[in-house]
Amino acid sequence: MTQKPNPLSSIKVSGPIPAHLARSVIEETLRAAILDGRIPCGTALRQQDLADLFGVSRMPVREALRQLEAQSLLNVIAHKGAVVAPLVQGDAVETYALRILLESEALRLSIPLLTSEDFQQAARYIDELETQHDYTEIGRLNRLFHMSLYSKAPNRRLLKLVEDGLNEEERFLRFNLEAMGLGKLSQEDHRAMLRAVEDRDVERSVKMLEQHLNRAVVVITRYLDSPEAKNRKTTK
């Protein structure tokens, strides 16, 4: 019987990790591997295996796993421990309804504090998205564009929740965007949203954001219900 490859074998650790950096190094290394799919959904991450891999005690591993759980990248399941969370599934409507609430408030708080440099950076992300063909990079740039508009919101806890939602979307887009064909529509929405933000028109900006996310719900829900998406799930 063929043994399944160990997802942790894709992670390369170069040399000893200084004790004071252990938690952050483990967190960032695992986060990158989860986002790019080297550690797939449903993988159980055992503390001792990770401690052995990184050459550290279980304490920094435990702390790193807690941070990844807080970012919605891991779920803690009874008798299995920390398990890589699934991508956006059948609860897309609920997921995006929550995102609309959180991101609308972040945008309202951020707009009065944004600078011309922030607008220029957001425009650069859109320009990059227009020409980018790598789906991993598209997911990353999409997250960065949205965060560039929300980043000046003074409520740090709100921004943390917003970024968790964008991280979840980034993971989904990395593995499904090509099949969904969302790219061009997203850029038209992004440009319209940025124009409203540059005008300091809070209500129009929030309306554009709501329309953008609601369109994503329709496309994602249709895709998840399609035979192609169901076939992708059964073959992974």
UniProtKB/TrEMBL annotation:
<feature type="domain" description="HTH gntR-type">
    <location>
        <begin position="20"/>
        <end position="87"/>
    </location>
</feature>
<dbReference type="InterPro" id="IPR036388">
    <property type="entry name" value="WH-like_DNA-bd_sf"/>
</dbReference>
<dbReference type="InterPro" id="IPR011711">
    <property type="entry name" value="GntR_C"/>
</dbReference>
<dbReference type="InterPro" id="IPR000524">
    <property type="entry name" value="Tscrpt_reg_HTH_GntR"/>
</dbReference>
<keyword id="KW-0805">Transcription regulation</keyword>
<keyword id="KW-0238">DNA-binding</keyword>
<dbReference type="Pfam" id="PF00392">
    <property type="entry name" value="GntR"/>
</dbReference>
<dbReference type="InterPro" id="IPR008920">
    <property type="entry name" value="TF_FadR/GntR_C"/>
</dbReference>
<dbReference type="InterPro" id="IPR036390">
    <property type="entry name" value="WH_DNA-bd_sf"/>
</dbReference>
<protein>
    <submittedName>
        <fullName>GntR family transcriptional regulator</fullName>
    </submittedName>
</protein>
<dbReference type="Pfam" id="PF07729">
    <property type="entry name" value="FCD"/>
</dbReference>
<dbReference type="GO" id="GO:0003700">
    <property type="term" value="F:DNA-binding transcription factor activity"/>
</dbReference>
<keyword id="KW-0804">Transcription</keyword>
<dbReference type="GO" id="GO:0003677">
    <property type="term" value="F:DNA binding"/>
</dbReference>
